[in-house]
Amino acid sequence: xxxxxxxxxxxxxxxxxxxxxxxxxxxxxxxxxxxxxxxxxxxxxxxxxxxxxxxxxxxxxxxxxxxxxxxxxxxxxxxxxxxxxxxxxxxxxxxxx
Length: 97
Fold this sequence. Notes:
The protein has three helices and two strands. The protein is mainly alpha-helical.
């Protein structure tokens, strides 16, 4: 369902989660920092990978999650999932959702 690089992204997200839990009481801030640190680790891995031609979208450049049933786009990069989660956290903060 995911590659080994996605595991490193999750470890970075957990580090951001625990550091933010130490200094903040806001649940929304803790979620936002954990998701943003996961996305940051994935983008660093992708931008420093010079073995592929399109590092931002190539699944082998960084972390990806395999979603069955999407056809051609079955490998979704971690940074795209993190952006959608940050939008949901923002909507939760402004009490839209």
